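User: Okay, second chain of the day. Same drill as before: sequence in, structure tokens out.
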Amino acid sequence: MRKIEIKVIARASRCEIILLKENLFKVKLTRPALEGKANEQLLEMLADYFKTSKACIRIVSGEHCSLKRLEIDE
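Assistant: Same drill. Structure tokens below.
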């Protein structure tokens, strides 16, 4: 199991995952942070990035803020 921290920027002009340092990422999302839309896009992008399914990624803390901690089953 891998644990990562993410700083999310919603409503960005483009989608992008930036590795800042080991297990710390900045993720730019185009969807707004309303009704879980940004979180859904985040899970989709991370599943592609880590080559796993969305079901293997869990938001441990920060579901309603821009700083998030996630666990990824690889």
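DSSP finds one helix and five strands in the chain.

User: Thanks, on to the next one.
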